[in-house]
Amino acid sequence: MKHLALALSFMATAAPAFAQKVETKPERQDTLRIIITGELDLDGVLRSHNATAAGAGGDDHGSDVWTVEGDIRLRLDIEMQERIGAVLSLRTRRLTGGAGPVLAVDNAIAFRGADTNRLGANPEETLVLVDEASVTFNEFIDPQMRLAAGIVPVVFDLRGRGEAFFFDPRRSGGFGKNAGATVFGFADELQPAGVHLTYVRDAFGAGLFALPAIVEGGDPSGDESAYGFWFMFTPKLFAEGTRLGSFVAVDSFPGSETSVWTLGGGLDLHGIVDGLEIYAESYMQFGRAGRNAAGDVLSVGGWALLVGAEYRIPDNERAIWFGLGFSWITGDDDAADDKVGNFLSYENVNEMLVLEDRTYGLDLDTNYLSFKIKGGISFSVGSEAKNNLELSLLVGFNRLVEELSVGGGAASSNRIGHEVDLRAKLAATKQLAFETAVGILFGADVLEDVFGAEGNSAAVWMFGTRLQF
Prior knowledge:
Number of domains: 1
Helix content: under 10%
Order of helices and strands: HEHEEEEEEEEEEEEEEEEEEEEHE
Strand content: over 45%
Largest sheet: 18 strands, antiparallel, barrel
Shape: globular
CATH topology: Porin
Radius of gyration: 23 Å
Oligomer: single chain
Number of helices: 3
Structural class: mainly beta
Number of strands: 22
Distance between the termini: 24 Å
CATH architecture: Beta Barrel
């Protein structure tokens, strides 16, 4: 709690300084302007006893946990002459990683702990995270080319919703965390360092990236790295928003002989019917993930599939929408053999509050399939506001692809549970919003039968404010 209070105090005292006129020193007249933006999130979160093991650190199922959590971000976009720019983005570190497995089982990955530092429980952890720190070279070689070097964001988000199905290293834990039978670590916020070269012209965009230090492990063999290529194409044949994309990456993580190739991509299609969006993504993996206890090389063979559709009723004053979604992410059926069936990724999917959300919930990443029914409606609250109150409902039917077992198979289950989420968001002004959400997981026999939890249900409730400046 003291870390959160310290950060809030810092922002409060620093804000007046940012508002003052800043004069550039004569020797730095190449600096044209600095744009300062930020965001303040403050949440109260209640997790039921079966959601606390991975949701609030530790593995105690004994009691519900109430926490106050914060996330403060400050971003500086610096424009200079000679087509040079820079970005510096700082934020309080909400997810810190940790040591040791949480809810580990014999034959597959279960849940990773989402955090151990929500209330400043570990004072030795870094309070401020450098989220992005890069120098950009615009019109690099070609007017449509841009090079960024430093701590750079590389995200493959086909739908542009802020939830990457496969690749978003800054919003995920280590790539190799799901390669073995025990949990590699807790959810984290990484600082991928390297270079990102992009080319954008009309409807076509492409990029090359080299991130040799996503996780710095000292010796090169201890580093986690990724190298790859992506492209996006916006065909004019369809409605605005349609995108076709492809992604190729090779990732390595601590340990010898770790080299995992991922090939895939997808389509986000608009315009077949007015208001209808159809999307699909698919990825396959091959390569090596180190060696098992017997010294055999572990071959990788995971894959993942995402398909869905959303329909927004055209010209509807309540902005009514509804949709369907289906995802299948493979799991590992035998941790003792020489194959890794878990799909490995830097995913950032947070649709289901309890099962998937990396901040509030259990952050299940691999070895599950899910069918979701969802929808929403908006209302106007206030005399001048238009549809500033958004309500949404999600129902998810889920199960594990491969059963989890303990005690050599004495207890096993693939029933990860079904979930119902209800969310509400009120935009009080253009910069201030209030949000609340409740998620209820039921029928999760894995929690009770495999992990020995008290009951087969879990719940998460949060209420928060979002202030942008």
